[in-house]
Structure formats: C-alpha cells, structure tokens
Amino acid sequence: MNRRRDARIGILFASPWIIGFLVFLAYPVVASFVYSFTDFSILRPPRLIGLENYSELVRDEVFYKSLVNTLVYTLGAVPLSTVVAIALALLLNTKVRGMAFYRTIFFLPSLVPMVALGTLFLWVFNGDYGILNDLLRRIHITAPNWLGDPAWAKSTLIMIAAWGCGQAMIIYLAGLQDVPIALYEAAEIDGAKTWAKTRCVTLPMISPVILFNVVMGIIGSLQVFAVPYVMFPGGAPARSTYFYTSYLFDNAILYQRMGFASAMGWVMFIITLLLTLLSLKLSERHVHYEAG
Amino acid sequence: MTSKFAVSLAVCAAVMVVAAISGELVVQRRGIPNRVTILYWEKWTGAEGEAMRAVVNNFNASQNRIFVRYLSISSVDQKTMFSTAGGDPPDVSGIWQDQVCEFADAHALTDLTEMAKASGLTRNYYIPGYWDPLFYKGKLWALPSTPASVALHVRQDLMPPDANTPETFPKTIEGLDALVDRISKKNPDGSLQLAGFLPSDPGWWNWAWGYYFGGKLVDGDRLTINSPENLRAFEWVASYGKRFGNKEVQSFQSGFGTFASPQDPFMTGKVATEPNGPWKANYIRVYRPGIKWFAVPFPHPADRPDLADRSNLSQDVLVIPRGAHHPKEAFEFIRYIQRQDVMEGLCIAHTKNSPLRKVSEHFFKVHGNPYIRLFDKLARGPGAFYPPQIGILPKIQDELNVAFESINAGEKTPKQALDDAQHRLEDQWRIYKLQVLDK
Fold first, then answer.
1. Are A43 and B253 inside 8 Å of each other by CB?
2. Chain B contacts of A148, Cβ < 8 Å?
3. Would you call B435 and A41 a contact, using CB atoms and an 8 Å cutoff?
4. CA distance, residue A126 to nearest chain B CA (Å)
5. B57 and B77 housed in the same domain
6. Which structural domains are found in chain A, ordered by start?
7. What is the H or E stretch that residue B135 is in?
8. Which of A126, B158, B210, B362 has the most Cβ atoms closer than 10 angstroms to its Cβ?
C-alpha cells in the first residue's frame, strides 16, 4: 500500500516534467511526423500528399546546399572545438596559483548569449575596421573579408564555434581529474615525457569523455542557427552560410510550409542518428573504459 | 517540509504568478470601459512608432466608441500569421505591401472591398500605383499607412562642377557610369576609397533592377526572371564588380554602417550616389546634418528614353487579419488614417510622400524632404512600378538577392545566376500553385 502511495506521490512530483514532455516534446514529435506527409500552411487544415515533401527535398538544390554547408561546418567546428577544449582543460588542470580564477575566465565566454555573441563577432570580423583584420594588417598579413567573401564566411563561423567550448572544457577537466595519478607515475618510471604521457595516458583515459563531447558537438553543430542567423541574414553572401536549420526555419515560419519543414526535420533526425551511430561504431576501437 | 523550504516555494510560486499576470497584462485587450478595444500591431519603433502612436492617440480622443491599443512588435508579419492561425489575431496589423498577395492567398486577411466602397475609398482617392497592388484577385485586402517612391540621392559635394545640380546630373545609365569612373577613388593599396555608385548600396531592391531596363519578373502566369531585359540589368550590376574588383567591393562594403547611423556610406561619403526613399532626408538630418545632397530620378538606358523617371513604389499597409474580433471598428480606425489631414501628418512625420491623389500645398511646404515634390511626381508618373502581384513574391525577392550576391561576389555570371533563379522559382511557383492556389 505504501509503495503505491509512494509511486503516486512520485508521479505527482514528476508530473510537471511528464506533462511538459508529453505536450511540448512527444506530441510535436509525433505531429511533425504526420505533418511531413501533408501540405500544411498553418491557416488551412493539413492535406495528405504522401511522400511529395520528401521527393521535393530530393529535387531541391537549396536543401543540398544547406545540408552541405551544415556538414562542412560540423566537420570544421567539432574537431576545432574539441582540440581547443581539451587544450584548455589540460592547461587548467595544471597546478598553478589562482587556478579558480583562470577556470572562471575561460568558462565565461560560453555564458554569452548567442545573439550577443553574433553581434560581438560582427565587429571582430569586420573586413574593413574589425579588430582581427587590424591586427593582421599590423603584422603584414593580407586580411580576408571574413563576413563578405563566400569563401571565408563559413570558416568565420567555424572559428566562432570554438568560442563556446567552455561547457566541453569543464567536462574534460572533470575527466582529467579522474585519471589516476598512479598511471602517470608508472609512465614517468618508464621514461615518458609530457607529450608521451598525454598521448598514452591522458587521452586514452578521457576517451569516453571525448566521445561524449564529440557526439554532443555533432548534434549541436547540425542544429547551428542563432549565430549565423544574426551575423548572416538569409545565409548571405550567396547562401554560403545558409544552414539546414535556417532553411527549415524559413520554410516553416516565413513561407508557412509546415509540412515541408517537418519533412526536413525528420531527414535531419535521421542524419543525426546515423552520424551518432557512426561515431559510436568508430569509437569502439579507440575508446577505453576503465571497466573494459 | 521545513518552513524555509515552504517559504522559498511560496516565493517562487508568487513570482511565477506575478510574471504570468504581468505578461498577460501587456498583451491583453484591456482598454477603456464602454468602448470597443481594438488591438493594433505595428512594426515601427523609435520616431516612426511614436508618430503612429500620436495618430492612435488622436483617434482615441476624437470619439468615444472605439479605443485603439497600439503595440509595437518585431516580426509583425510572422506574428500576425501565427496569431491568425491560432484564432486570436490583432484587429489591425501593419505589414508590408509585398506580402499582401501571399497573405491573401493564405486566407489570412479580411476582404476590405465593401467596407472601403461604403466609406468612399476608391481608386480615385489614391495614386494608382499605391492602390493597385492592394487590389488582388478582384478584392481589396489592405490600405496604405505610409508609402514611398525611390529616387537617386546624390552627394553634391562629391560631384564635379558639371554634374553637381539636379539639372546637370547625368540622365542616362551610360552617363552615370562615365561619371562614376571620373569620381571614384582608390587608395594606393588598391582598396576603394570612394565609389561613385554601388548597386549593392543600400541593396534593398535587387528585384527591381530589371524594371529600370524595361524588364519585369512575371508575365501573366509565367516567370520572366531571365528575360533579356533582366539579364541586361544584371550585366550592368556585374559591370560594377569588374570596374572596382569583386573582392575590393566586398571589402569596401564590409566597412559600411547601417543606414540608420552616421556610418551609413552615403553619409560618410564612401558612396557618392544611392537610390533611396524620401525618408533618407530624415536620416541625413538626424545623423549627418549639413551635408549637401540632392535627389534626381534614377537614370535610364540611353537607348530607352521611354524608361525615364522610373521609380519603384513600396508602402507599409494596414490589414485586418481574418478572424479579427472587431473588423468594423478596425476598419473605422483604418479609415481615419486615410483622411487627407491625418495621412499627410503621418507622412510628414515619417518623411514620406503621400499615397493620396489629393495633396495639400501645406504638405509640400512643411515637409522635411526638400525634394518631396520629386518623389510625389515619380509616384504619379508613368514610370512608377511596383512588385508583381504574386504569392511567391518573397521567394522571388530572396532568389534575386542570392543571384545579386553571387554576381557581386563574382561567383556566377549574370546569365548563370538568373537561369538558376528562374529554374528554382519555376519549381517553387509550380508547387505554390498546386498546394496554395489549388491549381
């Protein structure tokens, strides 16, 4: 009797989350799947059109353009963010006075809201009077037009992605602090220097953490939206920064093509799922679990 | 449960309740008792928003039956569409003329035809170029709030003596090109210092370039994006990339501030001429008072004198979304704005020309733009044009922006860019007809 009562109370306490999950997540997910087979312009009832939205996607060159842009961004942003986050975590794991201060300073940028971040970097990367190009000119490097040149615009966003690696950095730091000292001592006895210890002890020991952050990074990068939306309206220049979610947003909100946007959402879900499974598969040989 | 925890919980709950009530108070239809409250969403903020607020206040004071609640909101078009779908739209919404057909096709608007006729608002009351685009599929869907026509603004102090007056400024595109070659300047490192003209500044009307060369975008049911006239227009656009260098233009442009700032390229003297609407005078007065400028009709191709005095017309419009709670009262408010004295007051405050056929001498006398007669004349003239009445107009504009950027960056030839746009838009138009127009 008591267990039943406890269960009821437990469900009652969890009910805000359960209701939120059902109303704001489960229902939209199921609804979007149904809508993906309809022509739904918000103001008229959805009309079943079978696989038409999906076949239109196959023919749509902007769909491919936005998908390629997103994959290129992911390919650039995830490795760069990973390397920067691990490097910072390694630095912040050393025994230096005032480390709490440094950890706070390096984590702070990841708290900057995306819109503010986009606006800030519009100034930093401005081709004419941006601070970055000013520095480059001072050292006689030909400064590119980061924001206006289609060849550079995506690279600019990839670099900006590294700015928000504070969350990953903290997780790496926690992982680093879990590496047993005994392993380093054993490595030192075997004559390992700093790089060898990092390569043969640290990285293998935090490999599960790397895998977690990489998978989360891939999922996040595939959904990149706010910063490009602020910095490059309409995917300018010439759709070179037009990402998948921007195209999805435009179809849903600007053109009221909810059915088509839902189909895009499901295609992205499948792509995300495949890339995640691929990451997990590829990681089997490289990720070391202490228990394994 | 400790008492501390209970108090914290109560405080949290109280904060949430207060936040919910405050949020509801901001958007609810509260007004004055015994009056019908109508909700009016408008895009404007700042001085333009205040000017409209003054009109609303005057309307509210002018009678005791209707109270208009004015709410300045961002993305007013999207929010109007979604609130209409949700069954609780505002009574009046201030959107853009370019969206009227799309909204009408989506069944998002109330037909104003009969109400307008009953209150004496007919085509004769307006300049045709402002009335006609609001009349779609035999019905009237919107009425103007403030309109504009476009003319070429010229920095007088940057012109050579033989082109520094409206009378002596080149009348043809070829004359403009020759002038640009004379006055443009480069720095020793090859970067641009002054551009006599740049098609990308301000870059708001890329859909319109073809019209200045005799082209159009839609012919009946057919899209004509890559017509010879449009191609000629975009080849002219591309000539500026070749003239200054695509990379140099991109780099130069990246140093431009927004139009509502002292860093606007026309105001800083980086660009000597710029097509723009009559509101430009207002921004010049605010951000760079004292600079010498004048406005002239945009030049025409030398072999097409019939295209003299071309000007693209645009306007902010007022609509009553479908399902509005008080459409009659909403129309009464819109009708009030159409009164000549009210409309002129609003257009003076916005530094725009009037959409009405009849304009008082007082309007021209007190108007903040010294060239307002030119803008008025262009709007009434045979060279005035407006965007095609087609539901996929926003997509056409998007595609032409992409085509423009590709050409401006030197990534595509004008032919490639327009062919691509034509191809993509034909597909979009086919789907739109099938899914929205049920054809």
1. no
2. 250-251, 253-254
3. yes
4. 6
5. yes
6. 52-283 (1.10.3720.10)
7. strand B135-136
8. B210
Q: Do A238 and B247 touch (CB under 8 A)?
A: no
Quick one: B272 and B337 in the same domain? no
Domain annotation covers residue B265 = yes
* B279 and B209 fall within a common domain: yes
| pLDDT at residue number B31 | 66
Mean pLDDT (chain B) is 94
Is the same domain home to B354 and B232? no
Condensed to tens digits (0 to 9), the pLDDT of residues B42-95 reads: 999 988 999 999 999 999 999 999 999 999 999 999 999 999 999 999 999 999
CATH number for position B174: 3.40.190.10
Report the residue from B251, B402, B431 with minimal CB separation from A239. B402
State whether A150 and B409 contact (CB < 8 Å).
yes
Confidence of residue B27 (pLDDT cuts 50, 70, 90): low
The answer to the question of residue B180 being in a domain is yes
Chain A residue numbers touching B106 (CB-CB < 8 A): 41-44, 256
- pLDDT over 80 at A214, yes or no: yes
Tokens of B68: 């208009």
Is A236 in contact with B405 (Cβ distance < 8 A)? yes
Q: Are A76 and A154 in contact (CB under 8 A)?
A: yes
Q: Which residue of A has its CA nearest to B412?
A: A238
Angle of CA points A48, A53, A57, to nearest 5°: 175
Verify whether the Cβ–Cβ distance A150 to B411 is below 8 Å: yes
| Structural domain boundaries, residue B224 | 151-312+387-435
B109 half-sphere exposure, CB direction, 13 A CA radius: 29
Band of residue B308 on the pLDDT scale cut at 50, 70, 90 = very high
Pairing of strands B139-140, B135-136: antiparallel
Does residue B115 sit in the same domain as residue B170?
no
- Residue B2 domain flag: no
Asked if residue B379 belongs to a domain, the reply is no
Q: Calculate how close chain A gets to B399, using CA atoms only, in Å.
A: 9
Task: Tell me how many domains chain B contains.
Answer: 2
Model confidence at B306: pLDDT above 80: yes
Q: Which residues of B touch A (CB under 8 A)?
A: 78, 81-82, 84-85, 106-108, 247, 250-255, 322, 394-395, 398, 401-402, 405-406, 408-409, 411, 424, 427, 431, 435-436
What is the reported pLDDT for A260?
Answer: 96
For residues B306 and B225, membership in a common domain is answered with yes
Q: Which pLDDT band, with edges at 50, 70 and 90, does A50 fall under? A: very high
B397 and B257 in a common domain: yes
Per-residue model confidence (pLDDT) at position B10 = 77
Structure tokens at B424: 């993509």
Tens digits of residue pLDDT in A100-115: 999 999 999 889 999 9
Q: Do B402 and A148 count as a contact with CB atoms less than 8 A apart?
A: no
A43 contacts chain B (CB < 8 A)? yes
Closest CA to B273 of B196, B218, B200, B202: B196
Question: Is B346 buried (19+), middle (13-18) or exposed (0-12) by CB count in 10 A?
Answer: buried
Cis preceding linkage at B297, omega within 30: no
Q: B431 contacts in A (CB within 8 Å)? A: 56
Q: What is the mean pLDDT of residues B300-324?
A: 97
What gap in Å lies between CA A52 and CA A36, rounded to an integer? Answer: 9
